Every structure is written in C-alpha cells, then in structure tokens.
C-alpha cells in the first residue's frame, strides 16, 4: 500500500501531514507513526498529523501522534502546518482563510495570512490545577510560582494548560539549562498525572522572551506553539512579561498575545512546506 504525505515545518518543529478525510480513523497506527518519525529509518518528524473530516460543526478535525506514538490533545506548531496543508489542498494559498479545526483540546481557529504566516486563535488558557492537570495545588487553585523538587533542586514553577499541560520555569540563562537531563524528570514527575511539557524561559525584556522546551512525547524540539502561548500567560501571571511578546525559540520567533478581556491567546508564526512523498506500508 502506498500512502501520500507532505512534510511541513514550523520553526523547525516538523510534521508528516496525511490527508485522512476518507477514513474515520488515522491511516497509520501509533507504531507505524513511530517508524515514520524515525530520523534514520523513516521520513523523520516530531509527529504525524492526520487531516480528518470535521465534526461538531468544525470544518476539519486534527489528530496527531507524537514521535513516541502517544497522542497529544493539540500542537500549536502542528496546527499552523495543518492550516497551510489545507490551504494548499484547497488551492487557497496566498489569501487570508480561517478554518475551524476540531481537536482533543477543543475548537481551534487558524487563519493563513497572505504573507504565509498563520495566525491562530488558541482559545482560553486553563489555569486551575485540575484542568492542567497537576497535584501542585488544590483542584480549583492556580499554580503560580509554586516550588517543585526536581533533580535535587527546588524550582519555582507556574502551570498552564492550552488544552495540553505545561510547566513553566523562569531562569536567568535558558541556554545554561541541561535540557536533556532535566526535561524527562519534569515530564514524568508524579505531580503531573498526564505528564507535562516543560518550558525554561529567560526574560530578555518584558516583550521579548527566550524559550527552550522539552515536549511531552517528543523530547527537545526546536519549537512548541502551545508552549510559547503557555509561557506568555505564565509570564503575565508572574509579572515577568507583558501580555504580548515575541517568544524566541531555537527554531525562530513566535508572536504571542493574551487578551484577558477576550479570554483568548493569539499565536502568529510561520509554517512551510518541505517536501512530499509516498510511504510504503
């Protein structure tokens, strides 16, 4: 069996995109997705994204398997890539087009801009401990500057869900963080029953943040859109940043804005087609 795919990347966070609208279930199993994501024996990617028919009134549905075969609720860079994939399929590249996308994190609305950037209404950040989820506070309380013991050190953490869990730590020097050693310890900490994404944030200016990320199910990646959104919200909650800022990731910058009045986080960033091919299954 031959299965067509297109690879896209958003700030180096790369995905294999598959048009899955003809089937109700993903055309690849989690195990097959692991093989596809392998950078030596497969295509190489941080995840496989399946474009599926819309449900609950949405234009389309997004499903995604991480490179370890797990299924996250949502992916910020991934949904920008999905929006570009849809625009390319529909022949609407170059015109501003919004799409409503059903995800496990709820309804997300990306809009492809004429310059190729994708602006995404990421919805409302969830701040109660039970929504993240984490045991670091009572169920309905926020987790802001709470101490967490990891690797023999006490870290001040702030937790935010963008439909998926994030643990944000503000540090003096993001580059000095031993991400490969610390990331797994945060991800699998007992305080996070569904594991967690972890962001280390250096505040250069209130409107400019530098971020390194360990993604749940993918490890160290060049970018994480939901992580950038969660980090901006955490920055505003802790008064470390403004409510709008450029977040510089290893793969490049994202512009994030949190409107408390609208209860919405906006993310704007690139998504680019890399190449297409066929998988032999």
Number of strands: 18
| CATH architecture heading of the largest domain | Roll
Span between N and C termini?
5 Å
As a percent range, the share of strand residues is: 35-45%
Assembly state (oligomeric): single chain
Structural class determined from secondary elements = alpha+beta
- Uncertain runs: none
Please, how many helices? 4
Jot down its keywords.
alpha+beta; 18-stranded mixed beta sheet; Diaminopimelate Epimerase, Chain A, domain 1; 2 domains; 16% helix; 281 residues
Your description of this structure?
This protein is an alpha+beta fold and 281 residues long. It folds into 2 domains: 2-121 and 270-280, Diaminopimelate Epimerase, Chain A, domain 1; 129-262, Diaminopimelate Epimerase, Chain A, domain 1. It is built from 4 helices and 18 strands.
Give the topology, please.
Blueprint: E1 2-10, E2 13-19, H1 30-37, E3 47-53, E4 60-66, H2 76-90, E5 97-98, E6 101-103, E7 106-112, E8 118-121, E9 146-150, E10 153-161, E11 165-170, H3 179-187, E12 197-205, E13 208-215, E14 219-221, H4 225-237, E15 244-249, E16 252-259, E17 264-269, E18 272-280
Parallel strand pairs: 2-3, 4-6, 11-12, 13-15
Antiparallel strand pairs: 1-2, 1-18, 3-4, 5-7, 6-7, 7-8, 8-17, 9-10, 10-11, 12-13, 13-14, 15-16, 16-17
Compact description:
With 281 residues, this protein is α+β, with helices and mostly antiparallel strands. It has helices spanning 30-37, 76-90, 179-187, 225-237, and strands spanning 2-10, 13-19, 47-53, 60-66, 97-98, 101-103, 106-112, 118-121, 146-150, 153-161, 165-170, 197-205, 208-215, 219-221, 244-249, 252-259, 264-269, 272-280.
């Amino acid at each position: 069996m031959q299965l067509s795919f297109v690879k896209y990347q958003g700030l180096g966070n790369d995905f294999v995109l598959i048009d899955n609208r003809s089937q109700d279930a993903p055309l690849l199993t989690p195990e097959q997705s692991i093989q596809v994501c392998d950078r030596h024996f497969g295509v190489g990617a941080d995840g496989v994204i399946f474009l599926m028919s819309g449900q609950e009134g949405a234009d389309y549905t997004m499903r995604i398997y991480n490179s370890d075969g797990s299924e996250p609720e949502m992916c910020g860079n991934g949904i920008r890539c999905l929006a570009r994939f849809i625009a390319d399929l529909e022949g609407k590249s170059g015109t501003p087009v919004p799409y409503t996308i059903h995800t496990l994190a709820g309804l997300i609305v990306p809009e492809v801009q004429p310059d190729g950037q994708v602006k995404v209404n990421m919805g409302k950040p969830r701040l109660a401990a039970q929504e993240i989820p984490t045991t670091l506070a009572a169920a309905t309380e926020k987790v802001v500057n709470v101490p967490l013991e990891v690797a023999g050190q006490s870290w001040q953490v702030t937790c935010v869900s963008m439909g998926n869990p994030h643990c944000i730590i503000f540090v003096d020097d993001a580059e000095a963080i031993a991400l490969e050693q610390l990331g797994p310890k945060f991800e699998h900490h007992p305080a996070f029953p569904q594991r967690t994404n972890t962001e280390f944030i250096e505040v250069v200016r209130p409107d400019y943040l530098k971020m390194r990320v360990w993604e749940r199910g993918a490890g160290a990646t060049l970018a994480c859109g939901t992580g950038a959104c969660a980090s901006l919200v955490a920055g505003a909650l802790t008064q470390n940043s403004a409510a709008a800022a450029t977040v510089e990731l290893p793969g490049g910058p994202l512009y994030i804005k949190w409107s408390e009045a609208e209860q919405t986080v906006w993310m704007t960033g690139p998504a680019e087609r890399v190449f297409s091919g066929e998988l032999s299954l």
